[in-house]
C-alpha cells in the first residue's frame, strides 16, 4: 500500500517539475528528490507543502565539501495522510547563500537561523537573521558544524548586545525573566512587553543549554552516541534513544525481534506516563493548587520506582541498544508492572475526578494560553500541543514503529468519533490537561496489551560490523512531548558523519509566544508548564 | 504496602516510611573493581569507557573517577570478571580528587538511610542557622535528568522541607547553590552572576557527572567541562543522575563543611 503511495507521490512531483529535477530515488518510507539548482527550492517546497498535504519536518544541512558536494541542504516534508517522508535535496555550489522558504512555510524560520549559525550559510529572504544558537558573545566567524571546525576549540568571547524586539508605546514596560528561573527548571530567557498586567509581546531566547551534541556525536563511537542520545533530554531518554537506534537499524537494514519491539513500546509508554503525571502535577502547582500536585507527585515517584526495578535507572537510561533492547522483562516483573499500574491508575483516576470537581482549579485552566489553530498549523506544531487544538498528529499512528503497528487498528466508527472529539478541543490549558489525562489512560492500556512477551526471538539482532559510509536514514519516535526526529548520515569506519536531531520542543517553543498573548503575566508559568517543553532538547 | 506505611491523606494515597526504602537490586549505581589486578587489560578498559572515567594509574592499577562515571555499565558488560556494578551510589566528596578510586579494595563507610541523614541534617541546620537552609538551584546546561531528581526531593515522599531545607527563588536568599550541567558556554555569564549575587558565606554543590567533570558532554567548544571551571565548588555529588538519597547526603556534607569552616 505504502509503495503505491510513494509511486503516486513521485509521479506527481516529477510531472510538475521534470526539467528541474536531477534524480529521484526512494528507500524504505523516504523519497529523495535531487534538484539541479538550489534556486528552484522555494517553488518546489511550496508545491510539496500546499498540494501534497505535507508539513515541514526538518531542514538538514551537511558539510560535504570533502566529497565534492559542497554544502547540501535537505528539506524534509512529512506526509500527513501516509507514512512517507519527502526529502528535497540541493547542493549549494560554492556560494554561501541559499533561498529562504519562510514566506511560504513559516515553520522554516528557526531551522534557517540555526543553519546560519552552525554552518555560516545565509538564507536570503529570511527577515530575521539574528543569532539563535550561538549567543552574542560568540565571534561572527565561528561555524561549529563545519568539518574544519575542531570540537575542542575554545572560542574567545566578545562583547555585543542581542537586539530584542522592542515594543514602544505609552505605559509599556519590559519584564525580563531568566535564564536562571525562580523554580527548579532549565535555563531560558523570556522578555515580556506588558501594558499593565497584559502581555503585549513575548520573546523567548533559548539555547543557554547548548552543549554541542550534534558536533560531539561526530567524534564518538556508535554505542557512545546512544548514551548521548539518551541525554539529549533526560526525561525523553527512551524516545530519543529509540529514534537513534531506529535510524541506525534502518541504515543497516536490520529488523529487530518482536520481543524487542514490545519492550521498546512498554518502556516508551512508561516514560510517557511518569512524565505526563509529573506535568499534570506541575500544572496543579502553577494553578496554585499544591494539594493536587502533592498527590500526583506521589504517583510520579511510584512510577519512577517501577522504572528502577525494571531497568536499573529511575529515568529509564540504558534501556535501548542498537539492534534491540538491553533488558528482558521477567515474569516477576510483568506481575510487578501489572500490580503497579493497577494501583497507580486507580489512584490517578481518583485524583483527576477530584481536580475536575474543584471549580477554582478548572476555572484557572479554562481559556488560559489558547493556541490559535491556524498558527499552530503554520508553525508545524507536534505532540500534545498540536492535539490540544485538534490537529491529529501522532507519530505512533502516522509512522508506526516498534510495536505500535498493533495498537493502531481503529474501526471507521472509532475514527469518526476521534475526529469529532478532536474538533471539540479548544487549545487552552484545560484542553492540554484533558489530552494528557486521556493519554495516561491510553498508555496504561498499551502497556497491558504489550505485556504478552511470548515471542522467544531474543532481545536484539546483531548490526553489521561495518555500515556503508554516507548512507543515511531518518529515525523517529513519539516522546511525551511529541515527535522526535533523528537523521543520521554514516561516515567512514563506522563513525557518524552528521547527526541531526530535531526534538518536539524545537517545533513547539515558537507557539508559546502566541499562546500567552491574551493573558496576564501571572498566567505565564501555567501556560509554560501546560506545554511542558524541554530546554535541553531544544538547545542540544 | 508494609505495616510501617503512614497515611498522609485518605483515599489510599500514602507514603512509606523511608527507613525501609530500598534501592532496587538491579539499580545501576557504583562501579567497583572485583579483581585485585587489572594487569594487561588497562588499555582496553580505557578505550571502552565513554567518559574516560577509567584511566591507567600504573602497570597494575586503574583509577575510576566517579565524577566522570555515568553508570552506563559498558565496562562491566565487557569485563564482567574485572568490574561489577553495584546498587549503591558513589558518595559525595569535598574535593574533586577524592572522587577518584583505585582498583585496590576500598574501605567504605556504613550507609545511612535517607531518614537518618535527614534527621542528622535537621539537627545540624537548626544548631548552625537557627532557621532553614535555603537552596538556589541553577541549571547550567544539564539534560534535565538531575532536575527530575532534585524536584523529587520536594515531593511528599522525600519531602525535604521537613528537615528544614527549602528551595528559594532568588540567589540573594540562598545559602547553598545547587548547580547541574557541564556549565555550557552560553550559561557561563549567568552562572557567574548568580554566584556573585549570592551573599557570603555560600556553599556551591556540583550535582551530577556533568557538573563534576563535564560528564558525557566533556570539555568542548560549547561547554566548559565542569562547574569548577567557572565558579569555586565546595562539594561534588557524582551520579547520572544522583538519587535523592545522595543529594541529601551531599547537603549534609555541605553543612558539615560550613561547621568546620565556621560561618
Which features does this protein show?
heterodimer; A: 540 residues; alpha+beta; Beta Polymerase, domain 2; Cytochrome-c3 Hydrogenase, chain B; 5-stranded mixed β-sheet; 3-stranded antiparallel β-sheet; 15 strands; B: alpha/beta; Alpha-Beta Plaits; Rossmann fold; 16% strand
Your description of this structure?
The complex is a heterodimer of chains A (540) and B (263). In chain A, 42% of the residues lie in helices and 17% in strands. Chain A has 540 residues and is of the alpha+beta class. Chain A has a five-stranded mixed β-sheet with strand order 1-2-5-4-3, covered by helices on one side. A three-stranded antiparallel β-sheet of chain A has the order 8-9-10. A three-stranded antiparallel β-sheet of chain A has the order 13-14-15. Chain B is α/β, with parallel strands linked by helices. Chain B contains seven helices and twelve strands. Chain B has helices at 42-48, 74-78, 114-129, 145-153, 188-197, 208-213, 244-261, and strands at residues 6-7, 14-15, 31-33, 54-56, 62-65, 83-85, 100-102, 133-139, 165-167, 176-180, 203-207, 235-237. In chain B, strands 9-8-10-11-12 form a five-stranded parallel β-sheet, with helices on both faces. The N and C termini of chain B lie far apart (44 Å). The model of chain B is unreliable at 1-13 (pLDDT under 50). At the A-B interface, α4, α5, α8 and α9 of A face β8, α4 and α5 of B.
Blueprint (SSEs and pairs):
The complex is a heterodimer of chains A (540) and B (263).
Chain A: H1 2-17, E1 21-27, E2 30-35, H2 41-51, E3 54-64, E4 70-79, E5 85-91, E6 97-99, H3 109-119, E7 122-124, E8 172-177, E9 189-195, E10 198-205, H4 213-217, H5 222-230, H6 237-251, H7 258-286, H8 290-311, E11 320-321, E12 324-325, H9 331-356, H10 359-365, H11 373-378, H12 383-387, H13 395-398, H14 412-424, H15 429-450, E13 472-478, E14 483-490, E15 496-502, H16 504-515, H17 524-531, H18 536-539
Parallel strand pairs in A: 2-5, 6-7
Antiparallel strand pairs in A: 1-2, 3-4, 4-5, 8-9, 9-10, 11-12, 13-14, 14-15
Helix pairs in contact in A: 5-6, 6-7, 7-8, 7-15, 7-17, 8-9, 9-15
Chain B: E1 6-7, E2 14-15, E3 31-33, H1 42-48, E4 54-56, E5 62-65, H2 74-78, E6 83-85, E7 100-102, H3 114-129, E8 133-139, H4 145-153, E9 165-167, E10 176-180, H5 188-197, E11 203-207, H6 208-213, E12 235-237, H7 244-261
Parallel strand pairs in B: 8-9, 8-10, 10-11, 11-12
Antiparallel strand pairs in B: 1-2, 3-6, 4-5, 5-7
